Amino acid sequence: MILLSIHNLSLPIEDPVLKFLLVLIIILAAPLLLNKIKVPHLLGLIIAGAVIGPNGFNVLARDSSIVVTGTTGLLYIMFLAGLEIDMGDFKKNKWKSLTFGIYTFAVPFVLGYLGGYYILHFSVLTSVLFASLFSSHTLIAYPLVSKLGISKNLAVNITVGGTMITDILALLVLAVIVGMSQGEVGTEFWVKLSVSFIVFALIVLVLFPIIGRWFFKKVDDKISQYIFVLVMIYLAALLAELAGVEAIIGAFFAGLALNRLIPHTSSLMNRVEFVGNAIFIPFFLISVGMLIDFSVFFKSWETIAVAGVMLVASIGGKYFSAVATQKTFRLTKEEGKLIFGLSSASAAATLASVMVGYNIILSETETGEPVRLLNEHVLNGSILLILVSCTISSFISMSSAQKIAESDNEDTVSGDNHEEENILLAINHEETVERMVNLGILIKAHSNTENLTALNVINEDKNESSVKNAEKLLHKATDSAAAADVKIQAIKRYDNDVVNGINNVIKEQNITDLIIGLEDEKGFSPAFVYNLYNGYLQNDNANVLVYHAAQPLSTIKKYAVMIPENAHKEAGFFHALLRVWNIARNSGATIVFYTPESILSILQRIIKKANIEAEFIIMKTWRDGEKTASELKEDEALILFMAKKGMKSFIPQMRLIPELLNRKLHDNNYLLIYPFSDFDKDNSERRSVGNHDDFMEIGNVIKKIFK
């Protein structure tokens, strides 16, 4: 009787509260249940959609609410693929991506055309459109691969880049065939399509980053920043549709456009991934499942024949393309499987093309039945293709990705080097807390999830206001780190001297890196300079990083890094260099090294092992570097490798750097790094990298940290 009183209980359920509750229960239960039997939850969500959908038990209708949220999930998948791609690796591997894109477009296309024209006896026009259905693919398993931490793997990078190429080509074929079926193809058609696509690409890839950089500089509110990201996704999708291509291409381009503005370790990236993986992407998978109708395969042998041809052309074509890519670039067997797994799923572009072709009526039969460009057998066959391809994609991707992740972990653990890090943030001013936390998250190793510490030193007088201020600062630091899903240890310490308190914590906590933030207005005040040279730098066992932030880290386009002569001979040089590598890899910014020729050769050898976007300029004298530093433009930052007096790389002019920075770079970000000059004998193995004769070893260390 109670159930009967629920409003609109009849199937399909229309009550919005009950409908949303049911979907949330499915999203919650699928991973929990299926992970135990090692079935990808992506597949479980699709099957759940089929069961509760209009072709199953008709519990839920595939109405506008499901379609809108599911469409957002589809756009989200493509956006994340563009957002998480490593632009340095993407540029480095662009020809590999292009090659794979051609393979994965051409092979399934040829198989599909031969099957459509010679086996199913379609017309040439229908056969071409039919063939294009198998050239595109949807990165439905990308969230699973990303979650395993191998999104930077070469195979993933190649597949993501190739996806953009093959989907564009497939959707362009769709646009051309639609135009031909309506008699619109001519010079004007090609000019209009080309110009509109170029204009769309320029707006998204050039104008969007400018708008985004301005927005993130002006707006600090986290909610507003996330809503801005959603606006950019949908705006790019709309512009793509206006240009004559599918919305998913626009979402991918939006990801590329905002790639450098949303650091991979930032709180904003954490929010973007969290909301997408928790809500929007599962909704898309459920909405795809709602399209599946198993009954059609028991009604017509012709439908089964068409579905068979579609499966062979699509799955077979993607498999041969993946194998060809693996052989061409000498990838491992598991990387080849991962390429096949990621590229084998047909959903978004395939479904879009089928629906467009199905809705185009070429003529009518004598009985008044419509003759469609793609008939209902192709429509029903595409549903089976979606189910089978998504199943194969989920299992193959999960299996190969797990093996690659395990292999990477074994390589990292089995290495002879035991480089560790413990980062200490000495916070004292409220306006610098979030900036210092963001820097700490940016420079830390990916595997470092706990060794971040925030410290505030209170004078031993135990003034009540000082205690409350310390608690406020530490609470803000832990909140800022938690937003990026990073745990930070908060320490409130009583001491009669701030510098002594910090140095004692460095020894007690075995700190490797100390970050000190400069106030905007004061910069290098006389008191700070005195404490720096006579206090912080007296500790020989930790890198000291002095940070000035005039704008958010995410808005920095380029870093100028100055390295003095003999810097590589310092014990802490390579440990400090890892910080620069982490900044480059996590932010996507370009690094311009100004360095002596002797160090240049070392950096070039390292970059072959751990790629970043970098340029190298030989710096003949330190004064040449100072001149370059003083001419930094807007949205550019400076990183200086410094040295204490008595170190091999010390230059007397370094004493004048604080004054120069106060005068010339008040409106720019800059970071001074003082590498440690000694290491603990009790922990010498951890610091042995600094004195290692083989400089290539640091390349291995850097590479392992990012795996």
Give the SSE layout.
Blueprint: H1 16-34, H2 41-52, H3 64-84, H4 87-92, H5 94-119, H6 124-132, H7 142-147, H8 154-181, H9 187-218, H10 222-243, H11 247-258, H12 267-289, H13 301-329, H14 333-343, H15 348-359, E1 361-364, E2 370-372, H16 376-414, E3 423-426, H17 430-443, E4 452-459, H18 464-483, E5 489-495, H19 498-508, E6 513-517, H20 526-534, E7 543-548, E8 558-562, H21 573-587, E9 590-595, H22 597-609, E10 614-618, H23 622-629, E11 636-641, H24 657-664, E12 669-674, H25 684-687, H26 696-705
Parallel strand pairs: 3-4, 3-6, 4-5, 6-7, 8-9, 8-11, 9-10, 11-12
Antiparallel strand pairs: 1-2, 7-12
Helix pairs in contact: 1-2, 2-12, 2-16, 3-11, 3-12, 5-6, 5-8, 5-13, 6-8, 8-14, 8-15, 9-10, 9-11, 10-11, 12-18, 13-14, 13-16, 14-16, 15-16, 17-18, 22-26
Sum this structure up briefly.
The chain is α/β, with parallel strands linked by helices.
Strand order of the largest sheet: 5-4-3-6-7-12-11-8-9-10
Number of helices: 26
Number of DSSP E strands: 12
Strand content is 5-15%
Mean pLDDT across all amino acids: 82
Radius of gyration, in angstroms, nearest whole number: 29 Å
Helix content: 55-70%
Distance between the termini: 57 Å
Query: How can the largest sheet be summarized?
Result: 10 strands, mixed
- What are the low-pLDDT stretches, counting only 5+ consecutive residues below 50? 1-5, 412-418, 680-697, 701-707
From the spread of the alpha carbons, the general shape counts as elongated
Structural class: alpha/beta
